[in-house]
Amino acid sequence: MRSRNPSAPRTRSTASRKLCAIAIQICTSFAAEPAESAVLSGKAEGPHRIEGIGIGFVPPHWKRADVNEVQSATSDEAMRMCRRLAREEGIFAGTSSGLNVIAAIRAAQRLGPRATVATIMIDSGLRYLSTDVYRPGYNS
Q1: CATH code for the domain of 86
Q2: Could you tell me if residue 6 is inside a domain?
Q3: For residues 18 and 40, what is the distance between their CA atoms, to the nearest angstrom?
Q4: Which stretch of DSSP H or E encloses residue 17?
Q5: Per-residue model confidence (pLDDT) at position 24
Q6: Is residue 100 part of a domain?
Q7: Are 134 and 128 spatial neighbours (Cβ–Cβ below 8 Å)?
Q8: Which residues does residue 32 pair with via DSSP β-bridges, in sequence order?
């Protein structure tokens, strides 16, 4: 088209534009927070046992528009997931990672078998050895 009209604006092909639109539509982001202190969801702050997150207020750089959904789980659920990750997957992680995996599993169940869901686990279970998280027989 440009060869016939050099002043015509450069545009992508229709197929290329559709591909870009499809790629944008399928990307969904989730935030995870303790159910006991679900301030990102507009609930009251409260005590919880998921270290490193759930600070009791909305962080100043939080942009709700960047997140499609906020998931929450209780401290006990996150701790159970930590033990399950260690027992079944060999992943020695902390409670915030347990919460992330819970949110990822819920997202995967809702999005269906064709979806690819990823999460990031940035903590180790080492600092939790002195807590109830990995205590034998605790709330298994």
Answers
A1: 3.40.50.1100
A2: no
A3: 34
A4: helix 14-25
A5: 46
A6: yes
A7: yes
A8: 71
The residue type found at 76 is: D
Enter the tokens of residue 12. Answer: 């992508």
Q: Are 124 and 94 contacting, i.e. CB atoms less than 8 angstroms apart?
A: yes
3-class DSSP assignment, residue 71: strand
Domain membership of residue 50 (yes or no) is: yes
In three state form, how does the secondary structure of 76-140 look?
Answer: HHHHHHHHHHHHHHCCCCCHHHHHHHHHHHHHHHHHCCCCCCCCCCCCCCHHHCCCCCCCCCCCC
**pTM as predicted:** 0.77
CA distance 75 to 47: 10
Q: Are 82 and 50 in contact (CB under 8 A)?
A: no
pLDDT tens for each residue of 65-114: 999 999 999 999 999 999 999 999 999 999 999 999 999 999 999 989 98
Mean pLDDT of all residues in 9-29: 56
Range of the domain at 45: 31-128
In a domain, 107, yes or no: yes
Which residues are CB-neighbours of 100 under 8 A, at least 6 positions away?
Answer: 32, 119, 120, 121
Q: Tokens for 56? A: 């009791």
